[in-house]
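Inverse folding, one chain.
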């Protein structure tokens, strides 16, 4: 799976990491729905850190289609809310 972090680049992750990312996405969604700004910040950071740690960065000149697009680390709660689908940032 190719994941893009807006403003940073793309990472290639094994599909086996999907469950871990989805768990963090569920936490992020719950914090957003509850208006927990501190929790949202913490979990967004953890989600992005997980992508960076588990994935392999693609070269800057690679133009691979992203299967998943995540917000930048400094995205506001409102910006992320606008990106959300019915299932959060990560479908499934």
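Residues assigned per position:
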């Amino acid at each position: 799976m190719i994941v893009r972090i807006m403003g940073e680049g793309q990472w290639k992750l094994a599909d086996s990491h999907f469950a871990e990312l989805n768990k963090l996405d569920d936490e992020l969604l719950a914090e957003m729905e509850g208006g927990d700004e501190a929790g949202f910040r913490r979990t967004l950071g953890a989600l992005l850190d997980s992508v960076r740690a588990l994935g392999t960065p693609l070269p800057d000149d690679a133009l691979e289609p992203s299967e998943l697009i995540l917000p930048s680390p400094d995205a506001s709660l409102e910006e992320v809310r606008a990106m959300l689908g019915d299932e959060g940032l990560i479908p499934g």
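The chain has three helices and four strands. Strands lie at 2-5, 9-12, 56-57, 68-70.
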